[in-house]
Specification:
By secondary structure, the protein is mainly α. The protein has 14 helices and five strands. The strands form two sheets. It has a three-stranded parallel β-sheet with strand order 1-2-3. Strands 4-5 form a two-stranded parallel ribbon. The structure holds adenosine-5'-triphosphate and magnesium ion.
Length: about 325
């Protein structure tokens, strides 16, 4: 079990349990988490309440997805002895903080949040937004501040939400006293990995993701289905790597050859099929050790439950303390 080190700076980051994790998670956030867990007191939230913003009807998937996401953490190298992994819904203090913070946020500000606007549009709910969906950046502020996180490793889509959190912290501290910590976003090497469709961000919910657990055959199938440069009809047509999804993945996962591939694509001296075969091999070699670890952990379901239970207990203790401080600052403490 991890010792929460109060001298270390804290990290809070996390994911929605809406499916297994994908390559975008790896380059956007997971890679940083694995690197930073030695230097920071790290907390990872599995945001099942936030999953409800889009999946409140299909709740039967969430429990399994919590397990999948936790398995992915362990297989990429998140170490529960260094990192606290916990489940959002099991910490009611987060919901309590959300209510307090909701007084400090203007609805018009939430409506102008660019990520909310994009997600609402992409999910087809732009004219039918629920209170919970519109307000999830406020709930996210509670996720980040209950443990007084200094740093939040995220993909680009989360930047407006971190800004919202910073705004809430500043308002709260100004109104009631210096209780909360203003966090900073840390965006990964690839801030937004494009999906296989070549248009939207790679997402668990958009049917455009290459998952960390995909088998070599599925990886091949997905790489070959990825949208590429439509101008390359004949093998020696000059290409435009900047609009090619396969090239975007070379850029993210094939540091060694990416420059050479860019040059030969532009000159039309590499065939798309060779470029795709090469990428398939690169991704499969990258995923092989991750999947090997996943297979081992998959056999130990009790361990997964144990990690989640212990992490949730640790996070809850910290959340309780923060809520006491918050209520004191807001003069909502009545009985000593
Ligand atoms: P969903 O479609 O259910 O919203 P998602 O794929 O967007 O799932 P989240 O759980 O919402 O994943 O995001 C978890 C973290 O991963 C966030 O920090 C987010 O910015 C980052 N992330 C997600 N997708 C990408 C991507 N394609 N590129 C870079 N970072 C990403
Ligand atoms: Mg998302």
């Amino acid at each position: 079990m991890k010792n929460n080190n109060t001298d270390m700076m804290r990290i809070l980051t996390g994911d929605r349990p809406t499916g297994p994790l994908h390559l975008g998670h790896y380059v956007g956030s997971l890679k940083n988490r694995v690197l930073l867990q030695d230097r920071y007191d790290m907390f990872i939230i599995i945001a099942d309440v936030q999953a409800l913003t889009t999946n409140y009807i299909n709740v039967d998937r969430i429990k399994n997805d919590v397990r999948e996401v936790c398995l992915d953490y362990l297989s990429v190298g998140i170490n529960p002895k260094k990192t606290t992994i916990f489940i959002q819904s099991q910490i009611p203090e987060i919901a309590e903080l959300t209510i307090f913070y909701s007084m400090l946020v203007k609805i018009s500000f939430l409506k102008h949040n660019p990520t909310i606007k994009t997600e609402a549009l992409e999910k087809g709910v732009e004219n039918n937004l629920s209170y919970g969906f519109l307000g999830y950046p406020v709930s996210q502020a509670a996720d980040i501040t209950f443990c007084k996180a200094n740093l939040v490793p995220v993909g680009e889509d989360q930047i407006p939400h971190i800004e919202q959190t910073r705004e809430i912290v500043r308002r709260f501290n100004k109104l009631y006293g210096p209780v909360l910590v203003e966090p900073k976003a840390l965006v990964g090497e690839v801030p937004r990995l494009v999906g296989l469709d070549g248009k939207l961000k790679m997402s668990k919910s958009y049917n455009n993701a290459l998952f960390l657990k995909d088998s070599p055959e599925i990886v091949k199938k997905k790489v070959f289905s990825a949208v590429t440069d439509p101008a390359r009809i004949h093998p020696n047509d000059p290409g435009h790597p900047e609009i090619c999804t396969v090239f975007a993945y070379h850029n993210a996962f094939n540091e060694k050859e990416v420059l050479e591939i860019e040059q030969s694509c532009k000159k039309g001296t590499i065939r798309c099929i060779d470029c795709k075969n090469n990428l398939t091999n690169i991704i499969n070699s990258f995923l092989a050790p991750i999947q090997e670890k996943r297979n081992t952990f998959e056999k130990h379901q009790d361990l997964i439950i144990d990690i989640l239970k212990t992490g949730t207990k640790q996070a809850k203790n910290i959340a309780k303390k923060t809520v006491v401080e918050v209520k004191q600052a807001m003069q909502l403490d009545y009985f000593g």
